[in-house]
Design brief:
395 residues; alpha+beta; SH3 type barrels; Histone Acetyltransferase, Chain A; five-stranded antiparallel beta sheet
Length: 395
């Protein structure tokens, strides 16, 4: 790390050219992250422009450096300078082999993995036109093709960085989808297979590891469960979209359609929301001493603790009332903090997307249960009337 001081001269690569400037001051870019180095330096460029810079974007000026003929202009970067700036892996950072050897081995493994149907949901980036909320829920999207291209470009400095990104395939699927959904189970298998392959540097056939993992997965199936083919449709993106077929375990259990099932489902959803760090600003009522103008903007305050108390007291008559109150929390947040670049606005969007994704299933199941109950009642009454009006044949 370079410890830049006020008045230090530096240069930085922008658009294939060196640009020169001077450090003017240092302070955190965001007050809530005082130890972060991100854009912590205020700099004055030689062309009289000012900007915030991160220390890793600034380079010392070597002796004998050629300056531009015109003050404030740039100097083209030479190929040798670009090569010199590239990271040189240290011994052991790629295991027993070199980075080039390991990158090529893993590239071949990913190509083999992409030939399997189970990897289809994670082959390419998510189609954001089909899933516009995906990027508000998933902070670090990734997929097998992106990882392969980064290996080809020697993007990863260490093998640990590669493994870190591979783990995000499962993490992202679990974040965006139901924990027990087929897409999450498929993501776990794909991630496990690739991590084992990366860890075993003597392995050249990833399909051997896949078959082993699949056998372990099948052997762990509980009694009363069986393996069946199911469609993973576009409502459950892993990374890419479209219809995919994966293998999942399903339990043969009778269908249950209880009109009151929503109560427990809403409790579980509320617990899930409380587990998210994004929910912290909305867990308790807004402090009117800290935000005295809040009631001037928000007519009906609402928070998660109030919703929880109402739910536990049994004062919601349907999930639609629960849904309305949660939506009110997000609407109030956007009304009081309309700045789309603010942290609280981003937290609101992520939490809202998570809530909507789970709530649509709860409401759908509730409506189906109510319709089922209504269909049963008329037939029951009709049978009662028919039996009471029929003449007795017994003596």
């Amino acid at each position: 790390e370079r410890n830049w001081q006020i008045g230090d001269r530096f240069r930085s690569i922008i658009d294939d050219a060196w640009w020169f400037g001077t450090v003017e001051s240092q302070q955190p870019f965001q007050a809530e992250y005082p130890d972060s180095s991100f854009q912590c330096y205020s700099v004055h460029w030689d062309n009289n422009e000012r900007e915030r810079m991160s220390p890793w974007d600034m380079e010392p000026i070597p002796e004998g450096t050629a300056y531009p003929e015109e003050v404030g202009a740039g100097v083209p970067v030479t190929p040798d300078e670009l090569t010199a700036l590239l990271y040189k892996p240290q011994e052991g950072e790629w295991g027993a082999h070199s980075r080039d050897e390991e990158c090529e081995r893993v590239i071949r493994g990913i190509e083999q993995l992409l030939s399997l149907d189970i990897s289809n949901p994670f082959a390419v980036p998510v189609d954001l036109s089909a899933y516009p909320m995906y990027c508000t829920v998933v902070a670090y999207p990734t997929d097998l093709t992106t990882i392969r291209r980064r290996l080809e470009n020697r993007f990863y400095r260490r093998i640990s960085a590669l493994m870190w990104e591979v783990r995000y395939i499962e993490h992202n699927a679990r974040t965006f989808n139901e924990p027990d959904s087929p897409i999450v189970k498929a993501a776990k298998i794909v991630t496990d297979v690739l991590l084992r392959f990366i860890g075993d540097q003597s392995c050249t056939d990833i399909l051997e590891i896949y078959n082993k993992v699949k056998a372990e997965d099948l052997s762990s199936t509980d009694e009363g469960e069986e393996v069946a083919e199911v469609d993973v449709d576009s409502d459950a993106p892993g990374t890419s979209s479209g219809k995919r077929r994966v293998r999942r375990r399903i339990k043969r259990q009778p269908m249950k359609a209880s009109p009151d099932a929503w109560k427990e489902q809403c409790k579980q959803l509320l617990n899930l929301i409380y587990e998210r760090e994004d929910s912290e600003p909305f867990r308790q009522p807004v402090d009117l001493f800290s935000y005295p103008d809040y009631r001037d903007i928000v007519d009906t305050p609402m928070d998660f603790s109030t919703v929880k108390e109402t739910l536990e007291a049994g004062n919601y008559t349907s999930p639609l009332e629960f849904y309305k109150d949660i939506r009110l929390i997000f609407c109030n947040s956007k009304a009081y903090t309309p700045n789309k670049k603010s942290r609280i606005y981003s937290m609101t969007l992520r939490l809202s997307a998570l809530f909507e994704n789970h709530m649509k299933n709860i409401i759908s199941e509730y409506k189906s249960a109510m319709q089922c109950q209504k269909r049963k009642r008329p037939r029951y009454r009709k049978r009662l009337r028919s039996s009471s009006s029929s003449p007795s044949t017994s003596r």
